[in-house]
Structure formats: C-alpha cells, structure tokens
Amino acid sequence: MSNIPPSAETGSIPRLDPAPLADPTPEGPESSRGLSGLRRRLPAALHNPVLRVLIASTFVHTLGRGVFLTVTVLYFSLIVGLNAAEVAVVLTAASAVGVATSFLGGFLADRLSARLLSIIAAAGSGLALMAYTLADSFVTTLIIACLVDGMMSAEHAIRGAIIARAFTGTERVSARAILRTVTNIGIAVGSGAGGIALLVSTPEAYRWTMLGAGAITAASALLLAKLPTTVDAHRPSAGETAERLSGLSPWRNPRYLAFTGLSGIFAIQFAVFEIGVPLWIIQDTDAPPAVVALLTFINTALVIAFQIPLSRGTHDMRYAGRVSFVAGILMAGACVLYFTASLTAAVATVVVLLVALVLHSFAEILSSASSWGLSFELADQRLAGSYQGVYSMGYSLGTMVAPLIVTGLAITHGLWGWLGLAALFVASASGITAIASRAASRPR
C-alpha cells in the first residue's frame, strides 16, 4: 500500500522480521475487528522477539504508571501538604523537564546503546517514583517530579527509536498500535489497584502505594534487558561520516519540525478530556460528577478495541494525512457537543456527553495512528533516535501548555472558547494533511 520504495523505506538500518506483526488480508468491516483483532494479532506479535519484550515491559511499566496516576495529585495535597498553586508549579516544571529529556533520550539513542538506555530510564523511573515516599516539602517534591517526568519522557523517545530500527513500514505503526492498546490495559488495571489507597485513605496506604508503583515500574527494566543488540544505534558506514549525519539532523528538516509542531498542537486534545471535560461537567452542566468515570471507562474501552484495526495503512503518508483530517473534523464536532451539553438537562446532557466522547475517542485513535505513521515515514532513519526525540519533544510541549489553553479558552469563555478549540484542531489537522500530501508526492 505504501508508495515508498523498499530501499528508501529500510535504508541501511538493521531490522528483525522473524514474523509479521499483522495479517494484511482484510477480514470484513473494520468495525467488526476490534477486540477480535487484538486477540488475533497479539499471538502473532509475540513471535517477534523485539515486540514480545516491548509488550511485556510496557504492560508492567504501565501497571505502575496507572497506580501512580490514580494517587499522585491527592498524594501531593493530602500527604505532602502542597497547596493547589504549588501542585500546579510542580506538574508544569516536571513537564518542562520532560520536554528537554524527550529530545535528549532520542539524541543519545543514536549514539549509545538504545537497549542500555531504555533499561536505565525504566529503572530510574521506578526509583524516582519510590522516592516520593521521602517527599516532605515543595522543593523535594519538585525535584522528584522532575526526575520522574524526565526519565519517563526519555524512555518514551528511546522506545520510539527502537521501534523505528526494529521494524519497517506498516510494521512500525502496527507495533505502536499494539503497544498503545497494551498501555491502556495496563493503566486501567493499575488505576484499579491505586484506588485501594483512595479507599483506605491513610498516609501509610499512600506511601506503600507509591512504593509499589515504583517497584513495578522498575521491574520493567529487567524485561528490557532481553532486547537484542540489533536495536542499538546505527553505525555510520564508510561513506557516512559524523559530519554528514549531522547534516541530516531533524533540526535542519523544516517539514519534520512543522509536522512535530502541528502534532503537538493536536495533542492538546488529551487535556480536553483529562482536564477540560471534568471541569466543564462539574461547573457548567447538570450531569452528575460520576459521569466523568463513565466517560473515562468508555474512552479506554474504545481505544483498546479500535486502535489496532484503525491504525492499518497509516504507514502510507497520503492515507495518514487523510486520516489526520478526519480526526480534526471529529475533534471539532466533539468540542461543539461538549459545549451543547451545557444547554441541555438531565438525561439529555448525559446523552450529548456520551456522543461527544465517542467522537473524541475516535479522533484520538485516528490522530495517534496518523502521527505514528508520519513520525516514522517523514524521518531519516539513519538518525531515528533524534527524529523520534524531536517528535516526542513536540508532544511534551503540547501537553505542557495544554492545561492553560484548555482552561483559558473553553472553561473561561464558554461557546467561543469551545469554538476556538474546534478551529485549532481543524487547523492543525489540515496542516498535517498538507504536509503528508506534499511529502507523498515527492520522491524520497
């Protein structure tokens, strides 16, 4: 399906392909291949040594992440004793550090062993999480939070480099989709375990939960040790000097930088769901707060069911661009419906929110698939780590400023704020579509 010649697609990067990741043969409508598609593809994926390790380590890592996400803000407030302003500063500063380490992780993955770096980052993340039990002030919490976000962001970029080297074309997107599905499952299970601390609600329960989250996260490093050395940095051939490779840097690729920036803007949609929608429901609608939990459950279920089947084909740049545009339209529709929920009452409000959530979830699924495909295909694979680091950096920047944008627009200005967000998503998606279309029409 790809219009990229095999030689341009694979370059000189070593890859492992003992087994395909997905069956290319269509098996009926996409809508019928949700969870059944996951059950069919996972056994095949487990035959691939790299993906088998990544699946196991991702599940273990996100179990710990799910536990941590459930208790983190309450831990800062109730146990450490931070006020709301201090919590906001801690989270913002940690995100800023994550922006820097996203690129640093990818940059180092081009020069050092990606396998060893991923082990260090995973173990470091776990130890940093465990260190939260020592936090007793604003300063110590800030330092630990920066370490946690820094390690996790670096690991994400390193993992992108590993996927870029170990697979090609459609296999890369398929691997990303499978890992995204596993991530959602792991976080869902971990969140349930973290809820135990909320029920017990004692300082000891919170601290033991943090220790458990850190230990689980650190354990994922043991699994990453099983990665083959072929995922390590590409060594320049005789004709590829360090100076020549430096000329291929993503910082000298305006098209990739533009794509990264637009993807970071679209990533604001995560804050719309995690921050904007809960605040909007509580402050401006008649829906009960419990609806937030229902929306979260449905979103997780939809991503698990449809991320893999709807990611197929997005290694083709032209198709990925069209998928991105559809995601923009769906996200704009969701924004309009979120506002409409403030005009209705009782059951109608819940129904409107559910429809908006479905549109939002499919926008999330499609935009993720499109961005994964383009982040690989627009990159020069000889510097896969640096390109994935820049891509992760753009995402981190988007999520860092997202809370301010979402609350400053939708929550503060109502209708015009939600319409502004809708226009922002359509504009960023349209820009990605234009970049993909132009890149697909040019020989590589």
TrEMBL record:
Residue ranges constituting the Major facilitator superfamily (MFS) profile domain according to the UniProt record: 50-444
Region (Disordered): 1-35
Record-linked PROSITE patterns: MFS
Transmembrane segments: 50-76, 88-109, 116-135, 141-158, 178-199, 205-225, 256-281, 287-307, 319-339, 345-369, 390-411, 417-436
Primary location: membrane
Gene3D superfamilies per record: MFS general substrate transporter like domains
GO molecular function: transmembrane transporter activity
Membrane topology recorded in Swiss-Prot or TrEMBL: Multi-pass membrane protein
Classification via InterPro entries: Bacilysin_exporter_BacE_put (IPR022324), MFS (IPR011701), MFS_dom (IPR020846), MFS_trans_sf (IPR036259), MFS_Transporters (IPR050171)
Localisation: Cell membrane
One cellular-component annotation, GO: plasma membrane
Signal peptide: none
Keyword line: Cell membrane, Membrane, Transmembrane, Transmembrane helix, Transport
Domain of life: Bacteria
PANTHER family, sorted: MULTIDRUG RESISTANCE PROTEIN MDTH, RESISTANCE PROTEIN MDTM, PUTATIVE-RELATED-RELATED
Name this polypeptide is given: Predicted arabinose efflux permease, MFS family
Lineage, highest ranks first: Bacteria, Bacillati, Actinomycetota, Actinomycetes, Micrococcales
